[in-house]
Amino acid sequence: MTATLESERSERRTNLRPVFSAYELGKICIHARTLAQVTGSDFVSETTPVVELYDLLSANPDLDFLPLTGPDGDVSGYIRRQMFFAKLSQTRFSRELLLRQDVRAHSIMERRVICLDARTYLSEASEALMARDEEIRFDPFVVTYEGKFFGTATVQRVLEGINHFLKLDLEACARMQDQILQPLERGFEITSDNHRIVMPLIAPGGDYAELIEINDRYSLGLLFDVCGKGLKASSMVNTFASVIKTLIYKMDAEGSDLPRILLALHNSNQLLTQLTCQEMYATGVAIILDKEKNVISVLDYGHGYVWLKRGSSVHRLSAHIKHAMAVPFLGIHDDLQMPAGHFLVQNNDVIFACSDGLIEQKNDQREDYGVQRLRNLLRRVSPESPRQINETILEDFNMHIAGSRRSDDLCMLCIRVVV
What we know:
By secondary structure, this protein is an alpha+beta fold. 36% of the residues lie in helices and 21% in strands.
């Protein structure tokens, strides 16, 4: 291969777009470059004597996959090192018969070759490769660009590409969730004492917890658990948080009241129903704290894991709220009617909410962490700070699972009433 031809090939590879959206064009052609360095060509003809292939493969142990071309110059099949030497050793006469000068490569080559265009999507490439017969399913394949041979690649490279971009997608969603949980600058003093823990099973997750300071009178606590896990669930979390924050922050900071906050929650559900997949929904609670009247208004979206702690007394608030609809989940019904339960609160009262990732987590004995264990712990724990309460509960939770793998996302929201 001349220096000029090699220079042109290198420039072409540098300027082209990535193969399978995962690798630069040059990186995927390791086998082709090795073959070209050895033979001066990207190809071996299907009319090449088998004895010459034997010499080529024996002298170059890195060559595993040899694409073969037919009379028209197109790739017509291939030979793999393992397949080639297996054929030579099938019988005591195989070597003598196959290494005769008149035996050509087309007599032993695999004709079920896969040729994929360099712009093929990873998912399409995976589907085409996995549709092959089992005995050749994980063989390398040929990459073309603009109808011409460019190189070869492997199933492993495709899987690595899929994993690479899945990781990038997950990291992007995780960064978005981190951003969505950052409080916006507000033009008033924030007085609510609160703490949250959000622990995705595999980042990003489908749990969401936050206390939104609407103004110096009202705070809105939100804790939601989206069905499912992974990208689909996290996209709904990000959509929900964006929708609710947009509607809440559009309110006049001085003129917000309970009816308007309830309307914003109602409108958020309508938008979520329209913007998210039909099968996606969320359970959870919304807690509106009126710091002037010392009242909390609680909406239970089919979650129910919210408690009010006063001293050593602990009450599960959802037991006092009646659902107006059989399926009160967020994001299913356009016109979801959610009655709120209203409760008087006092200074140092603690409101605690969590997702089912805490309550329903099993230990090695298949025992749930459970509502009763949480209630007993809430009775004993000191209400000095929401952070201490959350961390105490998390420590007890970790003792429960005793090093076992968690099975779900987990989040907690703890609010101490300060009047």
